[in-house]
Each structure stands twice: as structure tokens, then as C-alpha cells.
Design goal:
436 residues; alpha/beta; Lyase, Ornithine Decarboxylase, Chain A, domain 1; TIM Barrel; 2 domains; 9-stranded mixed sheet; 8-stranded parallel beta barrel; globular; binds pyridoxal-5'-phosphate
Length: 436
């Protein structure tokens, strides 16, 4: 039994369904490799996060960290759900603008926002600019002076918490490229600089400790640290933070050995820690913001592939090759990330062998799974990799000049194409002949 496939996701024909749509029909209609999202699952996660705050009766925002998956369609869904969203580039911001996403609900992150990106954000009245470094404060001031306007900002600080995750996924330890360091006095200096600038409206502080985190402890430590800093700011500078943003990083289940907590547990722990620490420090309870990315779209995403070649070498695990790979999901190659893959026509079929699931890209490291148990497969079979919705398509590349896959949203038995498959014409349309 694959724990990640629910009986409700299998139809009368025994096929895996997504959002009520048969995966074999999806593969037939849209081709493979294909990325499919179960939109109801996305909505459900957002609503669960929001509900915990509401049950705790605190002011809050749930801001979808859209670097996990950015597209016009996902911003439309976030708008419908009344969520905020984070962007980290002019490109993500432009996509949100195109989607008609309300700009006052956008937070702009990034450790090297360019002058052009800050201009774009200011021109579109982005709700919150998350200041990351002194250079950016100067650039933003320049943009604001030129436009003779002001902006809402928060300071990103490095909470100095390491969260027991994979080392590439950690962003909160002291030695990090993100945010202002606290102990050396940078964060205090940044606060003074912001408070002294009438064009900057200071709203609070932000800390993000990492990603794919399974323990509450890191969030509790970070939440407490942020409140400690807020208390210090009140005492030393008479500044009271209205918002404390603890970032994202809530872990999800990719394989059976992953034991994630529920959104309710993460948020409860954060809210309780902030309430308790604020009370101890005599601070008014700030608004609490979180920025889940992976946990919103990860479990809702599926990658569909068609099986092609197979290589059997006596004594070694066979290679079963799919028509995608590191170009549509680089996480196995980049982070040794693990996923579960099932057969679309019989997702609970008993495995008969353990194979290397190989991608089609010209890299020996393009192996989607080193040891994937599978039933008997043949060329033409459709395989579905589960929980691929976060940092999959978002990190897609054209390596080997392979076109990027199409993306489909499935909901209530209906499939909608939301990102077209790249064509060869798309691939070469930026190329120019060399006439040197
Ligand atoms: C990446 C990121 C997130 C989201 O992290 P997830 O692990 O996808 O939840 C949230 N906030 C910031 C600042 C980030 O950089």
C-alpha cells in the first residue's frame, strides 16, 4: 500500500485520479511530461493554516511563498482564497500583476533586489518590501525619492537558528546570505536607518529559518528570538513592532519515512510562543504572519511521465527511463530529494522489482529515484511521481534544450491547461544568428 495514495483518488477503472480526473486521460490529452495540480488540495491547505489562526483569535496573514510555484493561475487561486503572497523577483511580481493579484497583499523578498525590481514594486504599490541589507535600503530610498513617494517595509533578520534540515535548505543560521545579523548590531543599525527615513514606514520584523522542517523547536526558538528583538527595539529605540513574520519551512511528506507535523501543530506552537513571550516582555501582541510555500503546493502536485527505454545489467538494479527528469524536477539531483512514484493505471499494484528511475537528460546524476519499487512496467506506461508541486516546475530548465512541460490544474473532475508546453519554436525564439 502506498500511503500517499488515498482510496478516494482511485477511480472505478483502478486508475489514479487527480482532482477527479483520470491520470491516463490527462497524459493522453496533454502529453507527458506533465505537471498536474489538485487545486482543491491547495485551497484546503490555505484554509487549514488560516483556521488555526482564527481559532486562536489572533491577527494574522498567511502569505503563500510563490517561489515554490509561480504562475498566473496559482496567484488567481491565492486571490480567491484571500491569501497574501510573497514574490522574490521582478518576474514573479510581473506574473502576480498579470493575474490581477491585489498588490497590497504582496510581500517582496530577496537578498539582492535590483533598482529596476524595486521600481517595479514601488510603481505597483506592493504592500510590503522586506528589507534584507543596507544596500537595498539605499536603493529603495533612491527609488522613493525619484517617485516622491513612500513604502511599507519590514526588516528581515537572521534569527541564528539552525533547523536540523538538509544543509542546503537552511537560511536562518548566523552565517547566512539573508537578512541582518542581530548579535553584531546590524539589525539595530538597520532599524535606526529605517526609522530615520520618513519615506519608509516600518512595520515589523521577519525571520525565516529554513525549509522542510519537521520539528516545532526551530519555530519556537525563532518566534521567541523575534519577540526578544522586538522587546529590545521597544526598550532601546521606543519602536513597537506591529508585525512579526516567522517565515515558512513547514515540512511535508515525500516518502513513508517523513513524519511531518500538521499545519495546526506548527501554527499553534508559533502562536503560543509569541503570545507567551510578548506577555512576558510586556509587548502588545503583534500580528503574526507566516509564509508557507512547499506545504501549500508540494503535496498538491504530481509529475506524469511516460516510460521509455530500460537497461538491465545482471546483478545491478535496472534502469527504467522516463521522458522527463532533471529539467522538470532538479531536486533529486540537487538535494538528493526523494519521492514516491506509482503506476497511473494501478497505483496500488504490488511491486515486483526495485529500479533506478532514470531521467532522459545527459547527466549521470539525472536519476529521479535510486531505489523505486515498481510493478512490472513496459514502454508507454504512465508513471506518476507524487508530491512534486513545490520547487519542481519552479526550478525547471531547458537543459539539453528540452522544452519545459505543460501544467494543468484539476478540480471537480475538470482539467484546465494553465501553462502551455514549451514548443521547439519557443525554445529558439530568443536565439539570433551570429553575423560577426
Ligand atoms: C522560501 C521561503 C519561504 C517558503 O519556504 P517553504 O519551505 O517553501 O515553506 C518563506 N519565506 C521566505 C523568506 C523564503 O525564502
Amino acid at each position: 500500500m502506498n500511503e500517499q495514495v488515498q482510496p478516494s483518488e482511485i477511480n472505478a477503472a483502478g486508475h489514479l485520479t487527480i482532482g477527479g480526473v483520470d491520470t491516463l486521460e490527462l497524459a493522453e490529452q496533454f502529453g507527458t511530461p506533465l505537471v498536474v495540480y489538485d487545486v482543491a488540495a491547495i485551497r484546503d491547505q490555505i484554509r487549514r493554516f488560516k483556521k488555526v489562526f482564527e481559532d486562536n483569535d489572533v491577527d494574522y496573514e498567511v502569505s503563500y511563498a510563490s517561489k515554490a510555484f509561480s504562475s498566473v493561475a496559482i496567484y488567481q487561486v491565492m486571490k480567491e482564497e484571500g491569501a497574501h503572497t510573497d514574490v522574490v523577483s521582478g518576474g514573479e511580481l510581473t506574473t502576480a500583476i498579470k493575474a490581477g493579484f491585489p498588490m497590497d497583499k504582496v510581500s517582496f523578498h530577496g537578498n539582492n533586489k535590483s533598482l529596476a525590481e524595486l521600481k517595479l514594486a514601488v510603481d505597483h504599490h506592493v504592500g510590503m518590501i522586506m528589507l534584507d541589507n543596507f544596500h537595498e535600503i539605499d536603493l529603495l530610498n533612491q527609488v522613493l525619492e525619484e517617485a516622491d513617494t513612500s513604502a511599507d517595509v519590514m526588516l528581515r533578520i537572521t534569527p541564528g537558528i539552525s533547523a536540523h534540515a538538509h544543509k542546503y535548505d537552511q537560511t536562518g543560521q548566523v552565517d547566512s546570505k539573508f537578512g541582518f545579523d542581530v548579535d553584531s548590531g546590524q539589525a539595530d543599525k538597520a532599524l535606526q536607518k529605517v526609522l530615520a527615513n520618513p519615506r519608509l514606514r516600518m512595520h515589523g520584523l521577519h525571520g525565516h529559518i529554513g525549509s522542510q522542517i519537521f520539528e516545532l523547536e526551530g519555530f519556537e526558538l525563532a518566534a521567541k528570538k523575534l519577540i526578544d528583538i522586538a522587546a529590545h527595539w521597544q526598550e532601546a529605540f521606543g519602536y513597537t513592532a506591529e508585525i512579526v513574520n516567522v517565515g515558512g519551512g513547514f515540512g511535508i511528506k515525500y516518502v513513508a519515512s517523513d513524519k511531518p507535523l500538521r499545519p495546526e501543530q506548527f501554527v499553534d506552537a508559533i502562536v503560543k510562543t509569541i503570545k507567551k513571550t510578548a506577555q512576558e516582555k510586556g509587548l502588545p501582541l503583534p500580528e503574526i504572519w507566516i509564509e508557507p510555500g512547499r506545504s501549500i503546493v508540494g503535496p498538491a502536485g504530481y509529475n506524469l511521465y511516460t516510460v521509455g527505454s530500460r537497461k538491465d545489467v545482471p546483478g545491478l538494479k535496472p534502469y527504467v527511463t522516463i521522458d522527463g527528469g532533471m529539467g522538470d524536477n532538479i531536486r533529486p539531483a540537487l538535494y538528493q530529494a526523494k519521492y514516491e512514484t506509482v503506476l497511473a493505471r494501478d497505483p496500488q499494484a504490488k511491486p515486483v522489482e526495485t529500479v533506478r528511475l532514470a531521467g532522459k537528460y545527459c547527466e549521470s546524476g539525472d536519476i529521479m529515484a535510486e531505489a523505486q519499487p515498481l510493478p512490472a512496467t513496459k514502454a508507454g506506461d504512465v508513471l506518476v511521481t507524487l508530491d512534486t508541486g513545490a520547487y519542481g516546475y519552479a526550478m525547471a530548465s531547458n537543459y539539453n534544450r528540452n522544452p519545459r512541460p505543460a501544467v494543468v490544474f484539476a478540480e471537480n473532475g475538470k482539467a484546465s491547461l494553465v501553462i502551455k508546453r514549451e514548443s521547439y519554436a519557443d525554445l529558439i525564439h530568443l536565439d539570433l544568428p551570429y553575423n560577426g
